[in-house]
Amino acid sequence: MRGMRDLWPEAPSIVVLTGAGISQESGLATFRDADGIWATVRLEEVATPEAFARDPARVLAFYDARRRHLQHPSVTPNPAHEALARLEAVRPGEVMIATQNIDDLHERAGSRAVIHMHGELLKARCTACGNTTVWYDDLTGNECCPSCAIEGQLRPHIVWFGEMPLGLDAIYQVLAQCKVFVSIGTSGSVEPAASFVEEARRAGAHTVELNLEPSHCASLFAERIYGPASRIVPDYVAKLLTE
Ligand code: BV8
Q1: Taking the complete model, does pTM exceed 0.90, yes or no?
Q2: Angstrom distance (rounded) from CA 104 to CA 242
Q3: Catalytic residue among 81, 106, 116, 118
Q4: Is 118 a residue of the active site?
Q5: Which atom of ligand 1 lies nearest, measured to the CA of 215?
Q6: What is the mean pLDDT of residues 40-44?
């Protein structure tokens, strides 16, 4: 991850939290909707360190399938990702995206100031040396780490339940000073991301929820707009850019 000062010489005034809903229209399943990932597999079986210790092959297969799908030509950024990239291009240094998503659709759309708080599907991490490596292929669990050359220690670069999310110091620092907090496509079920809106409120920020339907935290937002992200996010960004 680049240093905070490279991306934001001044503290960004707009913080955007994104979740699975922003990538749904790009062909990636959400988690807790009726057709979501957790309707077909229990998270305790694939998204915890205990699951990986118990049955690494099953956990690796779960992420292999999602990594392959993410690289399918049909999966591309949608107008919501593109609008956020436009916002950053027009207001460089003023925007930070904290995403819970492990896909790379924000980057493919052109966003640069992105913190992947739950990790990245197209990276592997060595549990021996801690280094991350760009990774496009399946993981067998027997690979050699390109950094330390130790064999059999690579795992998906994913923050599982019970593990510490990434970039939290930077996120809380920016939340404490932000003027606008926009939450997009997240059900507000997973902590600590679900509590970011409270941090932003404490900072006196204007808080906005953009989602298909009211989230668990909807009542905490000053402004709420519901509909598909590909429509409501470009509209909201256009409004922000005229202010
Ligand atoms: C941690 C792996 C210690 C990646 C994921 C209280 C305080 C702190 C922690 C906890 C706490 N209570 C419980 C916890 C522990 C736990 C937790 O939150 N458990 C829950 C289930 C109760 N949290 C943790 O373990 C985290 N670590 O807490 O460390 C700590 C302590 C204190 C302070 C800091 C740290 C680690 C969590 C990481 C979990 N990893 N997955 C993967 O396999 O992909 S979580 C998983 O859920 C995904 O990463 C996902 O991003 C995340 C959030 O889900 P959403 O993105 O919101 O998706 P969801 O399906 O739920 O909702 C989609 C929404 O989109 C819906 O509302 C839908 O209406 C909408 N939508 C759909 N289509 C569209 C749309 N909107 C717009 N347009 C559309 N087209």
Answers
A1: yes
A2: 28
A3: 118
A4: yes
A5: 67
A6: 96
Question: What would the two tokens of residue 163 be?
Answer: 């593990």
Distance of CA 127 from the midpoint of ligand 1 (Å) = 23
What φ, ψ does residue 121 adopt, rounded to 5°? -65, -30
Regarding the beta carbon of 192 and ligand 1, being less than 6 Å apart is answered yes
pLDDT for position 7: 58
> Which of 44, 60, 190 best tests ligand 1's pocket when mutated (most atoms within 8 Å of CB)?
190
Question: What is the distance in A from the centroid of ligand 1 to the CA of 193?
Answer: 7
Tell me the pLDDT band of 1, cut-offs 50, 70 and 90: very low
Task: Note the pLDDT of residue 9.
Answer: 59
Question: Is the pLDDT at 138 greater than 70, yes or no?
Answer: yes
Confidence at residue 243, expressed as pLDDT on a 0 to 100 scale: 82
**Cα 76 from chain centre:** 16
**Would you say 225 and 206 are in contact if contact means Cβ atoms under 8 Å apart?**
no
CA nearest 236: which of 48, 67, 95? 95
156 CB near ligand 1 (under 6 Å):
no
Q: Is the pLDDT of residue 155 over 90?
A: yes
Atom 22 in ligand 1: residue holding the nearest Cα? 190
